[in-house]
Amino acid sequence: MDSATRENIYLAAKKWILEAGKQIRENIDKPIEVGSKTNPNDLVTSMDKNTEKYFLEKIKTNYPNHFLLSEEGFGDVLHTLDGIVWIIDPIDGTMNFVQQKRNFAISIGIYHDGIGEIGLIYNVMEDVLYHAKRGEGAYKDEYKLPPLNTNMVLEESVIGLNHLWLCENKLVDEKYMQKLIKTARGSRTYGSAALELAFVAEGILEGYLTMGLSPWDFAAGMILIEEVGGITTNIDGGSIDMLQRNSVFAGNPTVHKQIITNFLSKGRK
Ligand code: 2AM
Ligand code: CA
Ligand code: CA
Ligand code: CA
């Protein structure tokens, strides 16, 4: 993708994400229809669906050749990432949207033939936009995020993860996860994968570890993290499949290596 094309698409995506976020903010206290999907805690609302439809309409009108891969099912059914694909989560952190009214995001990753070109993560209630274009660095609003500190160690790190990692689970022996938590300086659970990936890019989390995420959860975050020298893999250190559900482990490269070597590979079931 040439830089003029990238700039044109970036400006449109930025305008639409800010507008969609504004709509959500303005309606945050209105009653909302809440349903559940795969289990009673897997929530979806009319706002998730309407926001996705908003992007669908904007993309198909302005860029009829582009594709949309998105969570709520209004996008395209894709078997490849050929062409230009917008990978969108209309609300990442729906439970936070419903019950906390904060700490949720809109996430947009734009890929060309499988290469991440543009990433946008909008922290809606704080009105903070994380954004990146491939090769041009990552930003938090107007502020350019510095490269991650490669001298960082786990003992001084804050790690983002869901507490279910500390319960019996199918992926990693919980004893090793408990050791990991005790070795780290601290741990946090924000409940929005996209925001937690943005926080890794910002350098306020040294790692973020999840059992299973879909492309719309990580497509934008991976681009931001790449731009600051971070790394995103599955929990075995292998590459992420952009069309499937994956375990995801993003982090500062030094701390990422330390965690894989000393905890994940040892405790892996
Ligand atoms: P979501 O809010 O868009 O569904 C914490 O729940 C994080 O994991 C959120 O980013 C959430 O995204 C994501 N997630 C992925 N799959 C999920 C599922 N089946 N149920 C709940 N959250 C899920
Ligand atoms: Ca969901
Ligand atoms: Ca999500
Ligand atoms: Ca979602």
From TrEMBL:
SUPFAM superfamilies: Carbohydrate phosphatase. Keywords: Hydrolase, Magnesium, Metal-binding. The keyword Transcription does not apply. Its cofactor is Mg(2+). Pfam families: Inositol_P. Its EC number is 3.1.3.25. GO terms for molecular function: inositol monophosphate 1-phosphatase activity; metal ion binding. It catalyses: a myo-inositol phosphate + H2O = myo-inositol + phosphate. The keyword Magnesium applies. It comes from Ornithinibacillus halotolerans. This is inositol-phosphate phosphatase. Mg(2+) binds at residues 71, 89, 91-92, 217. PROSITE patterns: IMP_2 (PS00630). GO terms for biological process: inositol metabolic process; phosphatidylinositol phosphate biosynthetic process; signal transduction.
